[in-house]
Design brief:
- The chain has 391 residues and is an alpha+beta fold.
- The chain folds into two domains: 185 residues, no CATH class; 173 residues, no CATH class.
- Helix content is 56%, strand content 16%.
- It has 15 helices and twelve strands.
- Strands 1, 3, 4, 5, 6, 7, 8, 9, 11 and 12 form a ten-stranded mixed sheet that branches. It has a two-stranded antiparallel sheet with strand order 2-10.
- A hairpin with a 4-residue loop joins strand 7 and strand 8.
- The mean pLDDT is 80.
């Protein structure tokens, strides 16, 4: 009889205990897979949302902390701090700057809290700065009361070109001039209005949320940023789009810590479960182990046997857990999108793939096999004469 047959036979002696041990390890693998998928997916989604899809290389803001600036720029908070509109001309004079987009961004929540509308006051430079900006229907503003709808808002409001849209909060009527296609970004849920109109609505004439800058050559970013920063008043800040993304990710920091603690606790529980199971198996089979040692079995043979028993459980459970984690990651992504994070990118928050599943499988497999060393050591220390005499 081979080592593998003996190992499987021993596991079958107490199938309930073997299954419960495997289940704890499967939960650990699934948890780790979900956490890694959410961590990488959210990071990629934020980077794509704030860097790749905007076409913006730098922002000028009055918010000194990148996290605060990220909140205002990405979520539309109406900050008491503002950028003076005349700074736009100073930035435009820098030779390395290609496009300058002054904008006013703010969000209005309905009285019942059921909906938040994002308004963005823009100029025609947005057509040059955003790489994917185009119109599915209509075109640019035709008057100060015109509005361009994001693709999702056009669907929700069921509006077409020339239709009138009434804003109860501002007690003002807008006429739809353009409708954007679905970009699967924050633009889909945004109402775009003329910059001057946006400033009037919130009584911020001549005041901007920030200034977005696109460079002619991205390789000049550091030098241009230093040049612009030197020309600005001391209370102005120049943030690269990468810094903005990092600021957003700091919002996610506490959530990330909680997720990794959960994964660590799950792995710790599985460690105790495996050690307990294998120790119980060793204690129950002390008489058999004593007979094996009497007929010549050494410490290496016992280590081989117990490691194989653990390996069978670990391979099966880790594989099942990693596969399950890959399938349920999108569910947890939707939960996190709804309840756990401040900035919600349009892209998928959960991005499981084979590499993440493989990493989860290997980590849990290694941890599980390592847990067999102590029970194997206990088995190797059994003295046959003591066991047989006592029994």
């Amino acid at each position: 009889m081979t080592y593998m047959k003996v190992a499987i036979s021993n596991l079958r002696r107490n199938p309930v205990r073997s299954v419960l041990t495997g289940l704890s390890l499967a939960v650990s693998a699934a948890t780790l897979c979900v956490v890694l998928s959410l961590d990488r997916g959210y990071t990629r989604a934020v980077t794509e949302e704030l860097v790749a899809k905007t076409g913006v290389h730098m922002y000028i803001t009055k918010e000194g902390c990148p996290i605060e600036a990220a909140s205002v720029i990405a979520q539309g908070g109406l900050s008491p701090l503002y950028v003076a509109e005349d700074m736009t001309h100073k930035v435009s004079a820098v030779p390395e700057v290609d496009v300058v987009l002054p904008f006013k961004l703010f969000a209005i929540t309905t009285e019942d809290g059921s909906r938040t509308d994002i308004f963005m006051g823009i100029t025609k430079e947005i057509e040059k700065i955003k790489p994917e900006w185009r119109y599915e229907k209509g075109g640019w503003f035709t008057s100060d009361t015109s509005v361009i709808l994001g693709g999702e808002m056009a669907r929700i409001e069921n509006l077409g070109i020339g239709d009138k849209m009434y804003s109860e909060h501002f007690d003002r009527e807008f006429v739809v001039a353009g409708i954007l296609p679905r970009y699967y970004s924050q633009d889909d849920g945004t109402f775009f209005i003329p910059l001057k109109t946006a400033q009037e609505l919130v009584d911020r004439q001549g005041k901007l949320s920030a200034i977005a800058i696109k460079l002619k050559d991205i390789s000049t970013l550091d030098a241009t940023r230093n040049q612009i920063r030197a020309s600005m008043p001391p209370d102005y800040y120049v943030l690269g789009s990468k810094e903005l993304g990092e600021g957003i990710l700091e919002f996610f920091g506490s959530t990330r810590v909680v997720l990794y603690i959960m994964a660590g606790v799950a792995i710790l529980i599985s460690i105790f479960s495996i050690v307990n199971t294998m120790l119980m198996a060793v204690l129950e089979r002390r008489r058999e182990i004593a007979y094996l040692k009497c007929v010549g079995a050494g410490a290496g043979d016992l280590l081989h046997l117990i490691s194989l028993e653990t390996l069978v459980i670990c391979i099966t459970a880790s594989a099942a857990g990693a596969i399950t984690g890959s399938f349920i990651s999108p569910i947890f992504g939707r939960i996190m999108r709804r309840y756990l994070i401040a900035f919600v990118p349009s892209g998928s928050i959960s991005q499981p793939d084979f590499a993440i599943a493989l990493v989860s499988f290997i980590i849990c497999l290694v941890v599980g096999v390592a847990c067999s060393l102590y029970p194997a050591f206990r088995a190797s220390r059994i003295v046959p004469m003591e066991v047989l005499r006592n029994e």
